[in-house]
UniProtKB/TrEMBL annotation:
The keyword Signal applies. Residues 1-25 form the signal peptide. Gene3D superfamilies: Nitrogenase molybdenum iron protein domain. This is Vitamin B12 ABC transporter, B12-binding component BtuF. Coiled coil: none annotated. GO terms for biological process: cellular response to iron ion. SUPFAM superfamilies: Helical backbone' metal receptor. InterPro entries: ABC_Transporter_SBP, ABC_transptr_periplasmic_BD. Pfam families: Peripla_BP_2 (PF01497). Keywords: Signal. Residues 84-348 form the Fe/B12 periplasmic-binding domain. Residues 31-55 have a biased composition (Low complexity).
């Protein structure tokens, strides 16, 4: 390989971090352990063919105080509608930028402004601060609401809570329905249920468009594929990438192999030769080497030992932009479309 192991490991760790990434209103305090009935009607089943939004009941605006359970099952009470919100995950950055006015966003993550990772980079400058989990700065800012991930540094999160900040730990979604549900929950918390429904409906429409394009694809016509990274691994069955491939009408070869704690499956050249993938998805970005992704594609394409692999023989190697490969917000629907259009260009 033309890439150093040190850089490969650093890239893997960063990619893994990125991939990890209610009740009706009343006059008293609300609880919101699950989406409301109206919200649930916006959540189709996991099947790509069942992703058409259903007609919802009347959407109910939020009343406060509102008590919710966060991604770690902690009860969080929100006394009034949050007017100042800090987002400390890329997932919440991407959702909140579409959900509420940027005037309500006190801060988003530093990754939000980086077009390599972020689907909202072109609008990130509308938010006054791009920060990481900086306890001192957040206490100084003292926003009404802070969103972190369920995997965020718990000692820092506890410091924020001890300082009196209202913190909600977002459960990292690992299914399409999980993504929909988290969006609807955020809409409920921030009194933006209609906007949340709109985001979910747009996501569903994109998925339905793909599903309709693939509706005449017979099971035996589905292509076999996997992603192939510079550090020699692929994403297995318990990953958002597997969800993307499934909704794009593809069979993830790596899903049939055991994966590590991060969902990664070791991939050797021998495995590629044995499995004969119809197409391969390669990284569109390599940590520390901006030009290396194209070089890796050329290396795979010209490798003498891989010339009889259909993906290589037919030059079906596709680089996937990192902001599409690693997203687990509503923009995952765009990832599905991107992948499906490259796999089955004649159907679009």
């Amino acid at each position: 390989m033309i890439f150093s192991m040190k850089r490969a490991v650093a890239g893997l760790l960063l990619a893994l971090v990125l991939v990890f990434p209610l009740a009706a209103a009343g006059s008293g305090e609300q609880t919101a352990e699950t989406p409301s009935a109206a919200a649930e009607s916006a959540v189709p089943s996991e099947s790509p063919s069942d992703s058409t939004p259903e007609t919802a009941d009347a959407i109910v605006r939020t009343s406060y105080p509102l008590t919710v359970k966060d991604g770690l099952n902690n009860e969080v009470t929100i006394q009034s509608e949050p007017e100042s919100v800090a987002s400390l995950t890329l997932f919440s950055d991407e959702v909140l930028m579409d959900l509420i006015s940027t005037r309500r966003l006190a801060a988003i993550t530093s990754l939000a402004s980086d077009p390599v990772y972020s689907n909202v980079a072109d609008r990130a400058e509308e938010v006054p601060r791009q920060i990481d989990l900086n306890v001192e700065l957040l206490i100084e800012m003292y926003p009404d609401m802070v969103f972190v991930a369920n995997w965020s540094d718990q000692s820092k999160v506890e410091q924020l809570e001890q300082a009196g900040l209202t913190v909600y730990r977002i459960q990292t979604p690992v299914t399409m329905n999980g993504i929909r549900e988290e969006i609807l929950k955020l809409g409920r918390i921030l009194n933006a249920p209609e906007e949340a429904r709109r985001i979910v409906d747009e996501m569903n429409r994109t998925l339905e468009d793909v599903s309709l394009a693939l509706e005449n694809l017979e099971p035996e016509e589905k292509l076999r594929t996997m992603d192939y990274n510079t550090w020699g691994s692929a994403s297995g069955g318990d990953t958002t990438w597997n969800i993307i491939l499934d909704h794009a009408g593809l069979i993830n070869i790596a899903a049939s192999y055991g994966s590590d704690d991060y969902g990664q499956v070791p991939v050797s050249k021998e495995l590629l030769i044995a499995e004969q993938p119809d197409l391969l998805f390669l990284p569109g970005w390599v940590w520390g080497e901006p030009e290396a992704a194209e070089g890796f594609k050329d290396e795979v394409q010209s490798d003498p030992s891989l010339q009889d692999v259909p993906a290589v023989e037919n030059r079906r190697l596709y680089m996937v932009p990192e902001h599409l490969k690693s997203t687990y917000s509503q923009y995952i629907a765009d990832s599905v479309r991107f992948v499906a259009e490259r796999a089955y260009p004649g159907l679009f």
